[in-house]
Amino acid sequence: GVEKIVWKIGAFQEFMPTIDTAGNLAPSRFSVTSVHHIGILDIRIVNLDRNDGNMLVRKSDGTPPLRKTDANKLSLVPIDHGLSLPDRLEVYTSDIAWMLWPQAKVAFDKTALNYIMSLNGPSDAFLL
């Protein structure tokens, strides 16, 4: 028979103090690690809408920023996962801003590679 689709409604959110959206700053301000984290997440959840307005910016050390021009590298906080786990794939590079950033071209470090290798797609799919 045909399986009935069960729609789920709700969201789990956490407030993060941020200073801006990624689109208002040069991509060079973000660490390679931060961009890689966003990329790994987006690929894992098949997020098709990570434009530069869907990434908030905060200081990497997590302390409240005094101003956008602080010398520390900045990290990214992903928001708006409404187009994740889509029922069809229609992806445009303009919808996934980090793909065009230089940090996305840098090879993953050992920590990121170990994390990626530890992922279990079938297990994730079962949970969802």
Task: Describe the 3D structure.
The chain contains 3 helices and 3 strands. It has helices at residues 32-45, 110-118, 121-127; strands at residues 20-21, 55-59, 74-78. The protein has a 3-stranded antiparallel sheet with strand order 1-2-3.
Outline:
The chain is of the alpha+beta class.
SSE order and pairing:
Blueprint lengths: L19 E2 L10 H14 L9 E5 L14 E5 L31 H9 L2 H7 L1
Antiparallel strand pairs: 1-2, 2-3
Characteristics:
single chain; 128 residues; alpha+beta; three-stranded antiparallel beta sheet; 3 helices; 9% strand
Low-pLDDT stretches are: none
What percentage of amino acids are in beta strands?
5-15%
Which outline best applies? Answer: globular
What is the CA-based Rg, rounded?
16 Å
Structural class: alpha+beta
The average pLDDT is 84
Number of strands: 3
Topology order in helix (H) and strand (E) letters: EHEEHH
User: Total helix count?
Assistant: 3
As laid out across the biggest beta sheet, the strand order is: 1-2-3
Give helix % range. 10-25%
Largest sheet entry: 3 strands, antiparallel
The first-to-last residue Cα distance is: 21 Å
